[in-house]
Amino acid sequence: MRLYTYFRSSAAYRVRIALNLKQLRYTAVPVHLLRGGGEQFTDAYACVNPARLVPVLEDGEATISQSLAIIEYLEETHPRPPLLPSAHAGRAQVRSLALAIACDIHPLNNLRVLRYLKSTWDRDDAQREEWQRHWIRAGLEALELRLAGNADTGSFCHGDSPTLADCCLVPQLANADRLSLPLDEYPTLRRIRDRCVQLPAFIAAAPGAQPDAE
Amino acid sequence: MRLYTYFRSSAAYRVRIALNLKQLRYTAVPVHLLRGGGEQFTDAYACVNPARLVPVLEDGEATISQSLAIIEYLEETHPRPPLLPSAHAGRAQVRSLALAIACDIHPLNNLRVLRYLKSTWDRDDAQREEWQRHWIRAGLEALELRLAGNADTGSFCHGDSPTLADCCLVPQLANADRLSLPLDEYPTLRRIRDRCVQLPAFIAAAPGAQPDAE
Predict the structure, then answer these.
(1) Are A165 and A104 members of one domain?
(2) Mutation target among B104, B122, B134, B146 for the A interface, most CBs of A within 10 A
(3) How far is A169 from chain B (nearest CA, A)?
(4) Which of A55, A85, B92, B154 is the most exposed place for a label (fewest CB within 10 A)?
């Protein structure tokens, strides 16, 4: 398997965690999203992903974009260890938590969005950081309420082993850290993150541990 | 089953299509996102969804937010007719197409985002519409390239029956129509949409056909 990745992409980070949890070996193909205007805009990369985004997983004939689609694919093709619980309601909860991050927080803080805010509306660094913090806070606040009040929450987002939800939570909190957003108001999220980052799968997936890290 | 919905929410629209395709009966609980500052901000709704978003599906003991998590849940609990193909690679493609809409287009054009742009940065109607069109065009352009160049594309996004991807595409194109965005550059998407909207499941799910439509 080959993973088109960028060390700082939190969507790629999710997939790296999932691959590691399932102990799947892969070749990392770094796509530098900033260098030379962005390697994702080359003609070669258009053939890999017309949407010009990372990550993309190549597995035999299959070329898959979108981090959650990749992780669901890995879950179906390599079921052990499972990243989704077995019961229908639990699977729905885990997917819902993951999507609450992947749809409600991360897309607003994407590199391409920050670029638009700068180039089209001349938003300065402080304004763009406040924009990012605003959406992260809104999303984390709702997540904290959900997890703190749910009997299914364990050492991880759902029960006592990592799931798809944890694959999304840890990269999102890493982004919060980069923006110096205090996590005091999200004790459940912080507790789960602190547990996750002790695991080798999460450690090896971290941005700083990637071959393309700067 | 009870679906918390708003006629104009494109995420709720996706779920309504899926429920109809599977011929599942449900009670619609309208949540008016604009009236009185937004019914999603009531204390009562906080118990349903701390994230203050629609849709939410209640099915027995399960309360599920996030449209794609709901549709995956319906797919697992009511497998016929399937909204995902059977082969791993095909399932990944359909999920990837759905996520390309749910993560890369829709979150940027959400009501809460448009409100931020107006209240915090004083962006006027024209600027906010151009913002919306920008992200829709970027997303649809990539989707058109993917679908036009893929042998799996049929009368629908994947093959000749509707899938999760079509549940997402049709509401997104309805949003494009509301913004008077021409679809000439996306002939494949338009052809698929034109086929979908002939089906009773899509007709009954449309915003204008809802009990809370204005």
Answers:
(1) yes
(2) B104
(3) 16
(4) B154
The enclosing domain of B24 has a CATH number of 3.40.30.10
A171: burial class by Cβ within 10 Å (0-12, 13-18, 19+)?
buried
Same domain membership, residue A182 and residue A107: yes
- Over residues B184-208, the pLDDT tens digits come to 999 999 999 999 999 999 999 999 9
Each residue of B143-176: pLDDT tens digit? 999 999 899 999 999 999 999 999 999 999 999 9
A77 alpha-carbon distance from chain centroid: 20
CA distance B152 to B86: 13
How far apart are alpha carbons A135 and A179 in whole angstroms?
A: 12
The answer as to whether A168 is a domain residue is yes
User: What is the value of pTM for the model shown?
Assistant: 0.97
Q: Are residues B97 and B191 in the same domain?
A: yes
Q: The sheet that has A62-65: what strands, in order across it?
A: A27-30, A2-5, A56-59, A62-65
Cα gap A42→A37, rounded to integer Å? 10
- pLDDT tens, residue by residue, B47-83: 888 888 999 999 999 999 999 999 999 999 999 999 9
Chain A residues with CB-CB distance to B141 below 8 A? 50
Strand pairing report for B62-65 and B56-59: antiparallel
Same-domain check for residues A105 and A193: yes
**Is residue A61 less than 8 Å (CB to CB) from chain B?**
yes
Domain that holds residue A20: 2-81+203-209
Which residues make beta-bridge pairs with A64? A57
Segment 96-125 of chain B within 8 Å of chain A by CB: 96, 99-100, 102-104, 106-108, 112-113, 116, 121, 123
Provide the CATH number for the domain around residue A99. Answer: 1.20.1050.10
The answer to whether B99 contacts A68, with C-beta atoms less than 8 Å apart, is yes
Please tell me the total count of domains within chain A.
2
Q: Closest CB to B142: pick one of A51, A70, A106.
A: A51
Domain-embedded: residue B214: no
Query: B73 and B99: one domain?
Result: no
B92/A contact by beta carbon, under 8 A: yes
Amino acid at B181: L
Residue A214 maps to a domain: no
Q: Is A192 within a domain?
A: yes
